[in-house]
Amino acid sequence: MQPNSPVLTIDGQPIVVPQVFAYLQSSGKLQGFVTEILRQHVIAQEFKTRQELTIDPFLVEQALVNFRVENKLTDPQEFQEWSAKNASAYAGFRNQTIYRLKIDKLKELVAKPKLQEHFIERKLILDRVVLSQIAVADRELAEELHSQILEKSDSFEQLAREHSVTEDRIANGMMGPLSRGRLKESLRAAIDSAQPGEIVGPIDMEKYYCLFRVEQFLPATLTGKIEEQLLNEIFDQWLSQKMQKMTVKLQEN
Length: 253
Description:
Radius of gyration: 28 Å
């Protein structure tokens, strides 16, 4: 494309390449635009050089069949009429399907061998624990509340509603699932040696002194969404390393 070739037209006015760069630079989005081009370039080069990325035509056809079912185009006559009107849309879907299948296969080749090691490295962050808390400004009050709970004179839930100063008091102090790796170290050490139902604290959480009840441990497993997340992380790291080795010169004029 020549510098003065229009990239698109707006209300009949051509927008040329230098204008595109100027607009992106003004909006602060030029770096992201260039990064995405680099990313797609690396992927395109891998598609060209890796013979293992050949896609089984059956998988493509199956995806196209699913597309027809989802769009209620199973009748041959209706599909033929729809295709005549939407040829570019259908061709685009087919190309996107092939691209997605190749990307999935490339991720398998690049990321799968490193998956177990990456999971171990990230497990502290991925493991979660469900906690409830009572947060107060005074340590002596926190200790007194702990004693009341142990003596069963008052329930944890009741004391959370009556005394806790954080918003979760309206839910009896329930904080929900939290990443173990993002907990304050002193809190993590305390809950790691506790059992579900056990109260730990008071723990100095900077602003408040807190009692925590361990509700449930949710250890991460290398399945489903976690596996997909980690594969994407490894793949993105691999792409970034490839991109960092490339020499890029922006031709604005």
